[in-house]
Amino acid sequence: MAGCGGDSGGSGANAGPPQPGGTLRYGLSQAPTCADPAQGGSNQTIYVTRQVVDSLTDQDPKTGELKPWLARSWEISPDATTFTFTLAENATFSDGSPVTADSVKRTFDAVGRIGAAKAPLAGSYLTGYTGTTVVDPRTARVAFDRPNAQFLQASSTSQLGILSDATNAATAEERCQGEKIIGSGPFTYASYTQNVSATLVKRAGYAWGSEVFGHDGEAYLDRIEFTVVPESGVRTGSLSSDQLDAVSDALPQDAPQIEATGGTVLTTANPGVVFGLQPNVTRGPLRDPAVRTALLTAIDRQELIDTVLGPQFAPATSVLGAKTPAYQDLSARLKFDQTATKAALDKAGWVPGSDGIRARDGERLSFGVTFSQVFAGNQAILELVQQQLRQVGVELRLELVSAGEYTARQNSGDFDSVYYNSTRADGDILRATFGLDGRNLNRRAALPALDQTLDAQLRTVDTGARAELIRTAQGQVLDAGLWLPTIELSQAIGAGPKTNDLKFEASARLQFFDAWLSGR
Fold first, then answer.
1. Confidence (pLDDT) at 43
2. Contacts 24+ apart (CB under 8 A), 60-65
């Protein structure tokens, strides 16, 4: 295959049947932040952790339907407060212990002990969790103190993957180092060096794969070696020279070199909250809602795509990406119109100064954006946004920090705004991102209309009614100026000519179970 691909990669129709064996060498654009699936958040981290842990369910990336994995069946109470899972009979952890209902209980209980600061996604999925009842060794009943309509989809995520008793007894810090991570997945950790590399080996005897997987039994690959290669040109060069078999974040300028040596660029759009700036509404000029909403039309999103990224990406047209269930097209509200932005800022009393930057009552319309290079295009995108905002009299200060400092500043609230995205194939990601009981990086107080909508969608079992609430919430987030969308993230994976059937799962993260190498 050459050129831009779809959701799996390969060397073409003549590759023949899958060949088991071999080591796939993968170049990550950023270091994994933690070996623990429950604490994983970034795409580069989840590319690793997804392979070592199985979930109760799996989500079909084509249809969004939930399919059996460790749970072979399930029942949901009419009010969505209890979820009863019947587990597969033969699944075991890599230490030989069986996967039981007690494993489910200990895994979910451990998320609560780790805490939302270290496991924010897993914590948000278990909002209102009151405990798991072990009905019998193969039946687990998970209960919540309020309706939790998003939980079944959450049970398909790597963050709620089921882990062994030994793992669940470890501290959060111990779990990040890799040695304590014992899952039931198709691969296990052979080694893990924080911020440097990870090596996985095939799990012998694996026979309880997801119904979404393309084959039964063990994975094809014997081994996956993840190394961190931050420089895009070095990743591409290593792929083209057969030093790597696949790489993250293949930028548009990399595609010709990848294709020239028989490779392909695999792409898929991420569901969930699009990339954007999340303002801290308690600091600086972003305290003014008129400023926040005025900036929605100041950003030329198509220019971001055309100048920095390329055709496999798309400009943001809402708070959620277009692949997210219940996405609402709000492109009319995000239409580039700097005349409208200037008029709104004028009306709010922000007047251009001698240097072109606006001010009101002695306060300059200047704020910082804290970001990391978790996605290779972040800095170039924000540099262009900086130029665009200056055209309307707004000074945007770029504050690039390490991944560790970025997390620390998020948790402490020490920022004017933060730049990121959040991937999930369910609209409840809005509650996790903007809800008062979620991360609330906006540091906002109550907004009754939005709060009621976010709570109602969580309580609504009817799929159609819940979707309508999620659509409403997207508009309410923009109404309050809680998110300044920029672009929809797409995964762009460079795959070498020997790499076949490297696939994206429903949340646009890589699944290596079906991947194999030809011509070894």
1. 87
2. 60/212, 60/506, 61/7, 61/212, 61/268, 61/503, 61/504, 61/505, 61/506, 64/325, 64/425, 64/506
